[in-house]
Amino acid sequence: MYLYSPSKERNLLWLLALIQFTLIMDFMVMMPLGPQIIQSLRVSPAAFATAVSAYSWCSGLSGLLGATYIDRFDRRKLLLAVFALFAISNLACAWAITYPMLLLARAFAGITGGVLSSIIMAIVADVVPTERRGWATGTLMTAFSLAAVAGVPAGVLIGAHLGWSAPFFLLVLLSLLIWGGAYCIVPPLREHMQKVNPSFQKVLKNLAELFSDRMHLEAFVLTFVMMTAHMLVIPFISPVLVSNYGISPANLGWMYMAGGAATFFTARPVGRLADKMGKHRIFRVFAMLSFIPILFITHMPELSFAAILVLFPCFMVLVSSRIIPLQALITTLPRPDQRGAFLSANSAIQAFGTGCGAWVGGLLLSQGPDGHLLGYGNIGWLAVALASICILWIGKIRGHDDLARA
User: Fold this and answer.
1) Total of domains in the chain
2) Across residues 152-181, what is the average pLDDT?
């Protein structure tokens, strides 16, 4: 364990949170830019969904395989190298003038993003003592709120006025500035290299053992189905609002800002509620409550933008609140000696589910002669059906501590 002063540890954590911010913004900003990308590159909603999915699939795969090699390098050197590649991937996205170019650039961004996420968590585990690990994780989680409240709305507003590629140029600039900070702040981290790292075959064997455990498989199924249900609806909110309801792309930024601000203030109370009243119960409550905004937004009548601006935060809060007790429950499942490998695998499954949800949703959408997107209502019903399966399935999931007390 490395020993740093509180100020150095704090500076390092905030730097990692900024890197995490760029990763989250890179993934999230694609969805509200959907209408412009579809129109500019003249692609179908299914093709756009495939571009969104490519990032998630490649991120999950690279994050899972990252366990086989990230411990063989100095964390500082690997972080700087992969973060530079991530910046290049965003430059490739900004310069994409055809759909195949965009698809390849998004896949490349997913590969680098998945590895970066693994490196960040490895650095936190190396540098921060166990008794402060929760605080460190909370610091990193602020990146999600910052991306939702500031990053994505700013990207959408810039994209509405300067074109859909402009947010990716912004990400390149932010990445270069943060890379300079990382070069100055992140110290050499080689202590883990003194240990004998397992062979590639041994790592694969450990992963196979992880997936052969029935309790683990049940948790992975729950994660996959829930994230598929989650992403069936979300990527297509912006394209549907623009195509079917005439909402200006510039106004989408205000909508996402309102939704992000709402989740910023509700996430922690929902987490405390799950700790107090039980994670299974709170998941079921919010999963059932989420059916209302999901079916409303996928069957929405003609409304003014002001009404949508008021209602959208309700959708964001209820839909995202399902994930908080679910994630908290999943972390209690593995034994302490399996926790790191299990959570890495679960993150990969989460990314695969995210990609599949966006891809299937795109396949179910079609474009009518008047330019309207058709089939969104059926997607809403499918999302509700999958979430209903999760409400039943979650009863199978029991944490390690619960089993020990039984």
Assistant:
1) 2
2) 90
Tens-place pLDDT, residues 8-36: 878 888 898 899 889 988 988 888 888 88
Rg (CA), the chain: 21
**Cα separation of 353 and 183, whole Å?**
34
Distance CA(41)–CA(351), nearest Å, equals: 26
* Cα of 166 vs its chain's centroid, Å: 21
Claim to verify: residue 374 and residue 262 sit in the same structural domain: yes
Q: What is the CATH number of the domain that holds 224?
A: 1.20.1250.20
Same domain, 202 and 150: no
Q: What's the whole-number mean pLDDT along residues 149-177?
A: 88
Which of 144, 174, 197 is a domain's end point?
A: 197
Range of the domain at 368: 198-406
Domain boundary pick from 197, 231, 246 = 197
Condensed to tens digits (0 to 9), the pLDDT of residues 347-357 reads 788 888 988 99
| 8 Å CB contact between 13 and 140 | yes
Same domain, 184 and 221: no
Same domain, 188 and 202: no
Average pLDDT, the chain: 84
User: Within this chain, do residues 173 and 207 fall inside the same structural domain, yes or no?
Assistant: no
